[in-house]
Amino acid sequence: LVNRAFHPEDSIVNVSGVKVGGNSLAMIAGPCSVESFEQVLEIAESVKASGANMLRGGAFKPRTSPYSFQGLGLEGLDILCAVKKETGLPIVTELMSPDYLDVFNEKVDLIQIGARNMQNFDLLKQLGQLDRPILLKRGLNATYEEWVMSAEYIMASGNENVILCERGVRTFESYTRNTLDLQSIPVVRKLTHLPIIVDPSHAGGKWWLVESMAKASIAAGADGLMIEVHNNPECALCDGAQSLKPDKYGSMIQEITQIAKVI
Ligand code: PEP
Ligand code: MN
């Protein structure tokens, strides 16, 4: 079902009215984690003014240490919904447990499956039963075949609205958090008809790497970007080092729009 050979034209996924794929770019921005209503609202209003068309924010966080901030859970989800009401931006947030399938299906515009759950096959099968589009991030060390087959799981279970997200893979390099695999963009576009977006924030792990990698991703044919933006990165509860300040996000989007025009 994912195979380009049986579906030559690009698929366009509609996320609550925002088209992803074809000529439309998904510009997803927001904090790593939902911290408070005021925080998310301030960030959402500024990224929207800069041209973002979807809001991200983690309510359930997959953290390496059990002692790190785990997210606000359902309270965080309610904050996202309240900010959506204020701004009109569709919301993107990560689902980790099948326990919350119904509430996500009801409230979340684009359900994110994180790198660590890319091969949680039972969860993937259950996503096939939902009506909501799915953002499937590439696993920490997943091959293209493995990643694309995970999309196939969701589609084979009945949900064909899948967007892929490259977020960097583990390599021998430890200076950066991960290594952004720009080649995945043309490869995925060759193998599949699905939209592919890029998350340069989790790829590099450093805010000053985000702009150049975001531009390169669009130049390489990505259908959008997911970028972490925080109004006070030094005090962020998660991933402050890779978060852009709102004004930086704004200037970057201006240049990216120029690049997108010539692609
Ligand atoms: C995220 O986008 O919040 C996240 C945890 O990313 P990843 O699953 O790619 O590590
Ligand atoms: Mn993060």
UniProtKB/TrEMBL annotation:
Record-annotated DAHP synthetase I/KDSA domain positions: 17-257
UniProt entry keywords in alphabetical sequence: Transferase
Name of the featured protein: 3-deoxy-7-phosphoheptulonate synthase
Gene Ontology molecular function: any one: 3-deoxy-7-phosphoheptulonate synthase activity
EC number(s) on file: 2.5.1.54
Keyword Cell cycle: no
Domain of life: Bacteria
Single GO BP term: aromatic amino acid family biosynthetic process
Record's keyword annotation contains Transferase: yes
Residues of the full protein shown: 71 to 333 of 337
